[in-house]
Amino acid sequence: MTETIHSAASLWLALSVLTIPLFSALVCFVISEKFAWLSPMVSSLLLFITFICSAFLFFQVGDSHALTYSWPWFSVNENIIRASLLLDKHGLIMVMVVSLVSFLVHLYSIGYMAEDQALIRYFGMLGFFTFAMLGLVMSSNLLILFCFWELVGFSSYRLIGHWYEKQEAAKASTKAFLINRVGDLGFLIGLMILWSWLGNLDITYLNLETIPTFWLTTAGVCIFIGVIGKSAQFPLFHWLPDAMEGPTPVSALIHAATMVAAGVFLLIRIESLFTENTLVIISVTGTITAITGAIGALFQYDIKKILAYSTISQLGFMVMAIGAGAAQGGFLHLLHHAFFKAGLFLGAGAIIHAMHQAYHHQEGNVDVQDIRNLGDLRKKIPITFITFMICSAALAGLPFTSGFVSKELILTQMNEWSGNAFSWKWLVILGAWVVTLLTPVYTFRMVWFIFFAKSKHNVEMVEVPIVMRLSMFVISMSSLALLITFKPFHILTIINVLMSLYPNTSHLITLLSTLILLIALVSAFFMYKNYELKDQNKFLTPNLYLDWLSDYAFKLVLQFAILVHWFDRKVIDKIINGLTYLQVGIAHVTGWSDRYLVDGVVNGMAYSAKGIGSVTRSLANGKIQSYLLWAMAGLLIFILWILY
Amino acid sequence: MSDHTLLFALGAFLFSAGLLIVLTKKNAIMILLGIELMLNASNLNLILFNRQNPTTYEGQFFALFVILVAVCEAAVGIAIILKAYHYFHTSVPDQFSDLKERN
Amino acid sequence: MRHLLSYLIFTPLLAAVVGLLIPATQKNTFRVFALLISIIQIVIMVLIALHYEHHDGIQLSERLPWISMDLGQWGTMKAEYFVALDGLSFPMVALSVAIISIAVISSWTIEKNQKGYFILMLILNGAIMGSFCALDFLLFYVFFEFLLLPMYFLIGIWGGPRREHASIKFFLYTLLGSILILIVIIALYLSFQDPTSGKVLVHTFNMLHMQNPENIIPGSILSIDSTDLLGPYSYRLWAFLLLFIGFAIKLPAVPLHTWLPDAHVEAPTPISVILAALLLKFGAYGLLRFAYPIFPDGAIYFSWLVGFVGVVSIIYGALNALSSKDLKRLIAYSSVSHMGFVLLGLASITVEGVTGAVYQMFSHGIISAMLFLITGVLYDRTHDRLIANYSGLASKMKVFTGFVLIAFFASLGLPGLAGFIGEVMILFGAFLSQKANGLLPIWMAIVATFGLLLGAGYYLWTIQRMFYGPFSVKIPAAEMNDLNHREYVMLLPLAMAALFFGVLPQTLLNFINPFAQQFVEALFKSASFINP
User: Which secondary structure element, helix H or strand E, spans residue C390, and what is its range?
Assistant: First the structure.
């Protein structure tokens, strides 16, 4: 009895968590232009309710076994595809993270987007994104998950292209969707494989024993291709830096905290699907991505692009962790990353906003996102500085921050996974250590040039509005250490749940990583202390010419398409037309022959009769003598004939 | 035979001359004269052929007969010519074209 | 209530006769009249939906003797007026009623010879209903040929600058297809007998009899134990091939598709809508209704070919769309691509594939109608369809852009909109085929998924070029106003339907599922009867 009430309450909570953001989106789209100013408040309020509901839901379900609810969505061939909710530990934590970050981003956007012309569209899509993302983390049917997976891609497309008058934004949004779509094809093929062997796509009921290993591996790899697209892994990561054309809060929500993390989340969800070989591919891809992303972040000048590459690197780190048997650590890092990276983006947004306001009154066009134009901001915008520092510390993995905890966990678990004997696994471990070395370096570089280095420009700046500061503050507090933030709400459950994610870490690894961190920070300090940022190193384009490659691929496809079109218009159509013309030509030939040959024979007969007639008639000319002449001639011929 | 040959040649000459006259002369009376000449040439021939076989007189009889017919013919012919001349005001048969189609 | 289908078919035909009596000077009466007929049809359709029960047989059937002729040595010919609905035709008829109503509203701006236009529309309307309801092959053929005629005039008189060329091309192409079908109809006539006629040999065109291979006359041209070959194939396989080619022209499948871009580019907007949303469906409908059930052996033998043509159409159509400079041409080619999916699903002969194919037919009807209405909206304002001449429309025409997004994303297969369900099921079916019945190789499904990528490519690129960026229109003095009420009324129901059938596919699948299951089951059953 208690159980049913309990689960019924959870169901209603879960449904309201899912539908309130959708409702928020609807409200934004039906609201009239005149009341457009209302939409930020309304949707922020609705998102706050969502967050409260998700928190309740979390405590309701807590550490107990996972709950599932399902309704038939559609049926085909007696297989029913069920729209089903899976409320388990991972999912619920994600629900809470998504709704919290989304709420904070909504709140932040009230300030950040205050002067925007298209508030309705912005908040509408933000609400819709939150709905899709929550649906993604809660659904347990892979097909439904795929639907939400595409829908988050769609809302990401719309939000990147929010300022579509800018060609770059328009291009970036198209690129993001298309590259995601490449990954989604992989996902879809994976689903096709699973469907053909199982006839069922519900994660909780997958009976994997019936699939041959080869197909299971293929399905896993195919779905992982989807993850590569969505979570910006090598070689499909170059859409993410471009996606920074979107408004900064969107980057914080979608391209740092939630959507790009969806891939990592999916890996955790369908862990049971992965065979040994799949895991190898996953871990190697993750390692490559983590390292290239970190190197990329080292050479960028745009704050948002630094953060984007850092996101790529961190996502690669998580994917590597999952591939290398550190799924728990990977998931924990996903949570922590969501907060600190969102915090960093919000901070970057605050800097951009403040700089923008400052330059608003000045002449000239300064790229306020370029760290070469920044510097010495720590005194001008202290609150932003503090929150940014906390989040950066978490990113770098400083002790007492959330980033440290999850990094330790990952390194420990990977250490156990690699074993003592030397194998390829050591290369992955090496990669992990390289990333832990590089991350503090680029973080230090970014922070140094924004807040500490001398500024070329000296402008008066004011702090950003209170709503923005508030959300930045909350988010940075949660990256300080996740435990503290939630403690007042419900001590026991939360600690139990979270503690279950924290196995004992090895002290050796802790020491080692702290040492590396110190080395990295100190060397970065000496490296950048008197360093002048120069123009970009053209050779070391951090995205490994992938941009060029994908543009080239697009051009190639387009050229091919033009060729095909030419073929269609000039060859196939001409052949078809030619056949018609041939027929018409034949018709002309037969028409001609009908007129001149068939008819000609008939006419010819008449003409010849007429001709002969006129010849004979000319003999009968009425002259007796000529008659006689002919008679004589005839007689002569007769005589000659007789004689000879 | 040589005298006969000469006479045969004379007959042929007279016949040819008559024929030529019949074919070329425009006037009907001249044509009639040509015909008479041809008839006389044939009479000569008939008599000459009769000389080849003197026991009979077929040739002579035929010649007499021809002369008779020629007289009748001349009489009828000249009468027709006169009648035609009266009607057409010409004795040239080419101009007797009442029955000819107009072209 | 028993004659609902006849009402549906003959209301517009009768109305066309009545319309002839109205003097041509009563200009605007005709459009109101046509709209009234459409509304009556919607009411009839609602009644039909209320009477329809979800099972796998035919319903609401009406049978009347139509032609019964003693042909002496050639036997007795019997054709019936036999109309009924099943899980395949119900969605198609419902779609037709809806699309034609919208096409009538879309024709509101027609000025040239309204009387002729709307009477032709009414004839077209009745012929479409009749073709979808007919279950007698001859009756179907008659209705089908009957609808080509008004179509020819509607394109050829009310079309664009090259309308004569386009209409003649359309007519010749479809006529060629019809002739191929007619050849098969004659062969079928000679080979099938009516089992109910007792000892007398009665030839029939009844689909229910033709689906059953036991009704084949032994020793006839299409008899199952005939070993006569014509070239490489038996007569039965040739007959299937002819039917396939005939219907593939209408589908249209590459390489028999070139009439479509021309016809679409030249046709006026409402006619494009009907052409894309309804006429293209006859290709797939004919295959599902006639070619496959009558020749299951051919269907299985040539499944590779059909699947291959489908995959080629998907990719080829998408590539052509990608490089089209004309918006309408782009959409026409995208239709080729989407109908390729139908062919692929059909070729797989799996329940998933067939269900997906029917679903795709329906959803493509909604979406393509929307797409052509969208080009119509632009064309009405500027008389120009070149993509390169527009930029940044999103900032001037906000509501319109919203509809464009829905239509484009529905067409490229975004989940939650109607296009996704059909395509996903087709892909599932095509992939499943190798495991389930060994007909299609796996690579076909995988290559077909690239159609989804290319689809996203050409639509997003079009959005980027036409709707994003700074606002500019190359046509001077063109007023780019947002949608007016009439356009809104046309687009909104379609957008709602695209959303509805994307979110709640089961409403439609309730009709399709029994049909698809019975279709696949019966097909394999009669195939095993033919080739034991």
Answer: strand C390-391
